[in-house]
Amino acid sequence: MQKDNPNTERYIAIARACLKAINDTAANSGSREEKIQAVYEAIDQAFQAEFSEYRQSVAIMATVLERIASGQLDGEKAADLARKTLDQQPEATRNALMH
Question: I need a surface site. Which of 46, 52, 56, 65 has the fewest CB within 10 A?
Fold first, then answer.
């Protein structure tokens, strides 16, 4: 994995959550299915945590696009709203690949 990849820390956090879940379930006496489910849930929680900022940013941008698409704003106001929204997005979502 490239060190300059903006998602490196996300991948590492998800990998750590997976390894922790695998190690935790290895010591448990549960069934194979329960262990698989525990690992699956750990992976899901790690993904949810790592991508919550992206989801929040997308939701805000969708709201702004809906306002612009409604036609209630003139061109300059729409452009100004778009610029302000882009300026407020989290640094992690700027020019960063999702995968």
Answer: 52
Output the six-digit token pair for 27: 């010591």
Instruction: Please spell the DSSP secondary structure of 2-33, one letter per residue.
Output: -TT-TTHHHHHHHHHHHHHHHHHHHH--S-HH
Residue 29 is classified by DSSP as: -
Render pLDDT for 50-76 as a digit per residue (tens, 0 to 9). Answer: 888 888 888 988 999 999 999 988 999
HSE, side-chain direction, 13 A CA sphere, residue 86: 8
CB atoms inside a 10 Å sphere around CB 10: 21
Radius of gyration of the chain (CA): 20
Q: Look up the pTM and report it.
A: 0.54
